[in-house]
């Protein structure tokens, strides 16, 4: 996936001279995860810039650059390091189009490596998507496959609106049969995909939890469950129709994500599914999420992250009997 | 006991010398003169450009009248709020006058007057404060960023824009305005640091008007002056009398020239005074005394210039009257413009959130449309 992300930026920079990559350590080092590897060498330090260490400054400067017609792609080194930039994000990035009645859109892509499962110490593993999805004016997308890493990042950079691009850190090294010489076209921002068809229940998920859900779906076959898995890909806009269609067909739904459950995206999804599928549901919409705790230390994270067993236990609860 | 006498401090135990190090910049040229730079009432006034000063005077008088009119409009309920710049007009006007057409102004919420002096229609400039829309103009058309209510957050935008313009080879300077309180914000620090590292063509203008709402400068910073902060970033700092428009114009012009020539950013602190309250919602008598306000009245920016220009024969009674008449006409036009009820379209709520409306917003827009139709029928 790391390679696909690099390739997406490289292709975008080659095609459009207004695309600029910026952030901490993105130049000479190629980023702490090497996602910007080689870009400074190929396009020069003016197009791939090592900035001072200051997230608000990075995003604030990107706002000015976008005001002048550039398309900045900003790297926030780790999820929790993006928090100093929240005022810029919420008060300016998300609102500039609105404040100026459409006169000044800001085509900024904000890449945020997010989520746990890599044994990182504290402040390196947050699932911060709930903050972003609660902010009108931002698109929020997250790839779970190598194809999507490329396709969604290209679509984000091409978007005339700001996009928070959440990169599941633990999928950076995931391998897949991807041919970088001919990247496949993928549906753009705002479209969910059914990754596995099934009839007994729908698992609704995104980003780092997609592989876990697919594994759970395979394991569930032994229990006699045929699970459908929907990958949201985009949290804002939320592709309600694809989700609703699936749940109406299967009659049962579980939302799975790493972020805490209270006020997490799953709460909104469960509410919407309930509103639109009430008469089709055989059981309440259930959620499997991270606990409502600060992200735990590495030796405890396996107890916090939604895993296959917890998903299967929850699926079992869908045989609802009061 | 001296250090030499301490056990273990003998030559044989000494650590090796650290690698040689020296500062990258000589700090002296960056340091501001601690006395604010003045022109009016000094020998420097001998070289005033009469034509420029007549223009400055006309703009100052218009600015004072604009402030009075906007404040009156708050009393009539036509403006939700107006942060006055009475006493600070020289800063506002000079900031607008030193910029070329292609340059950009990044105003704070208090800097409506600078935007108007740059040529923005006064009614358009006041939409934020009237409440019909956040920004009533196209920033690109006027090269004026939206008035920024969060403090100092527009400063990194100015840096980014100036940097982008320079990358494209365009001759553009950004002038960013902030108050004394805003210099305590993290974005102020980050913007100055970025600008200096990138050598971006930016001028930072701090209007030190004495108070951040009610908190005086002494409780805001322990720096000798706000201009001294420049040294820490590696850019020159200048201290200037913010009520002296000739000095303001000269210092700002020099900084703009320097930025345009590739010399990088400058931090300018204009020492001025906010004669009125923070806004009409504030009671200034709770935090400052009449004596202080009276003392500043004697150093009024309009009168300072009027005295100098009259004494030098650059303006006379007739010219002063003509300027006042012109300002009165501007105020009448502003009154008329503001007395017309703004037309707002409720459906605009959903029009400019995204380039393409999301399903969610379409659904909510439909709900509002139904509510509006029901109201119409009732």
UniProtKB/TrEMBL annotation, chain B:
UniProt-recorded name of the protein: Pyruvate dehydrogenase (Acetyl-transferring) E1 component subunit alpha
Gene3D superfamilies: 3.40.50.970
Lineage summary: Bacteria, Bacillati, Actinomycetota, Actinomycetes, Kitasatosporales
Obligatory cofactor(s): thiamine diphosphate
Region (Disordered): 1-35
GO terms, molecular function: magnesium ion binding; oxidoreductase activity, acting on the aldehyde or oxo group of donors, disulfide as acceptor
Organism: Streptomyces venezuelae
Record keywords, A-Z: Oxidoreductase, Pyruvate, Thiamine pyrophosphate
InterPro entries cross-referenced by the UniProt entry: Alpha-ketoacid_DH_E1_comp (IPR050771), DH_E1 (IPR001017), PdhA/BkdA (IPR017596), THDP-binding (IPR029061)
Classification via Pfam families: E1_dh
Segments forming domain Dehydrogenase E1 component: 68-330
An annotated GO BP: branched-chain amino acid catabolic process
Record has Oxidoreductase as a keyword: yes
Gene this chain is encoded by: pdhA
């Amino acid at each position: 996936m790391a390679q696909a992300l690099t390739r997406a930026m490289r292709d975008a920079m080659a095609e459009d001279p207004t695309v600029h990559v910026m952030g901490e350590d993105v130049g000479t080092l190629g980023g702490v995860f090497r996602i910007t590897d080689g870009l400074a060498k190929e396009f020069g330090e003016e197009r791939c810039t090592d900035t001072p260490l200051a997230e608000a400054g990075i995003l604030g400067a990107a706002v000015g650059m976008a005001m002048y017609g550039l398309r900045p792609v900003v790297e926030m080194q780790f999820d929790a390091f993006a928090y100093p930039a929240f005022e810029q994000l919420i008060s300016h990035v998300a609102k500039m189009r609105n404040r100026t009645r459409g006169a000044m859109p800001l085509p900024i892509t904000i890449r945020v490596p997010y989520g746990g499962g890599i044994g990182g110490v504290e402040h390196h593993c947050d699932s911060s998507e709930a903050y972003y999805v609660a902010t009108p004016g931002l698109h929020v997308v997250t790839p779970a496959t190598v194809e999507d890493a490329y396709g969604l990042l290209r679509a984000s950079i091409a978007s005339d609106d700001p996009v928070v691009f959440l990169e599941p850190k633990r999928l950076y090294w995931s391998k897949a049969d991807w041919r970088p010489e001919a990247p496949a076209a993928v549906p753009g921002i705002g479209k969910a995909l059914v990754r596995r068809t099934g009839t007994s229940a729908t698992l609704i998920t995104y980003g780092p939890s997609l592989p876990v859900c697919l594994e759970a779906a395979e394991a569930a076959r032994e229990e006699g469950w045929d699970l459908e898995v929907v990958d949201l890909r985009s949290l804002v806009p939320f592709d309600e129709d694809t989700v609703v269609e699936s749940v109406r067909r299967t009659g049962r739904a579980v939302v799975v994500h790493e972020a805490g459950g209270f006020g997490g995206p799953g709460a909104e999804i469960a509410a919407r599914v309930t509103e639109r599928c009430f008469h089709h549901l055989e059981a309440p919409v259930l959620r499997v999420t991270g606990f409502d705790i600060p992200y735990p230390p590495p030796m405890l994270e396996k107890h916090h992250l939604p895993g296959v067993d917890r998903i299967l236990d929850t699926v079992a609860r869908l045989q609802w009997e009061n | 006991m001296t250090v030499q006498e301490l056990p273990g401090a003998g030559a044989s135990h000494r650590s090796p010398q650290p690698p040689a190090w020296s500062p990258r910049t000589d700090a002296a040229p960056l340091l501001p003169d601690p006395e604010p730079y003045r022109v009016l009432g000094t020998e420097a006034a001998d070289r005033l450009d009469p034509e420029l000063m007549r223009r400055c005077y006309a703009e100052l008088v218009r600015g004072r009248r604009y402030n009075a009119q906007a404040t009156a409009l708050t009393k009539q309920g036509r403006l939700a709020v107006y942060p006055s710049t009475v006493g600070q007009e020289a800063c506002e006007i000079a900031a607008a006058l030193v910029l070329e057409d292609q340059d950009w102004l990044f105003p704070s919420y208090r800097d409506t007057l600078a935007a108007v002096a740059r040529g923005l229609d006064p009614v358009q400039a006041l939409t934020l404060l009237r409440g019909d829309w956040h920004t009533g103009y196209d920033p690109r058309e006027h090269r004026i960023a939206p008035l920024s209510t969060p403090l100092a957050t527009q400063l990194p935008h100015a840096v980014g824009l100036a940097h982008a313009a320079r990358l494209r080879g365009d001759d553009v300077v950004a002038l960013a305005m902030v108050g004394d309180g805003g210099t305590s914000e993290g974005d102020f620090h980050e913007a100055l640091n970025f600008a200096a590292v990138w050598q971006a063509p930016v001028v930072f203008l701090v209007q030190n008007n004495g108070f951040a709402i009610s908190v005086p400068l002494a409780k805001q910073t322990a720096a000798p002056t706000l201009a001294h902060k420049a040294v820490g970033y590696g850019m020159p700092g200048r201290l200037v009398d913010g009520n002296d428009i000739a000095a303001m114009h000269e210092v700002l012009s020099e900084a703009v020239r320097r930025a345009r020539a590739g010399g990088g950013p400058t931090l300018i602190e204009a020492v001025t005074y906010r004669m009125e309250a923070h806004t009409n919602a504030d009671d200034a008598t709770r935090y400052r005394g009449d004596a202080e306000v009276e003392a500043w009245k004697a150093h009024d920016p309009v009168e300072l210039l009027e005295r100098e220009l009259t004494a030098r024969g650059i303006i006379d009674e007739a010219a002063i009257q003509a300027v006042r008449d012109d300002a009165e006409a501007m105020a009448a036009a502003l009154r008329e413009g503001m007395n017309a009820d703004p037309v707002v379209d409720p459906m605009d709520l959903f029009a400019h959130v995204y380039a393409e409306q999301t399903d969610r917003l379409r659904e909510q827009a439909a709900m509002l449309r139904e509510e509006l139709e029901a109201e119409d029928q009732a």
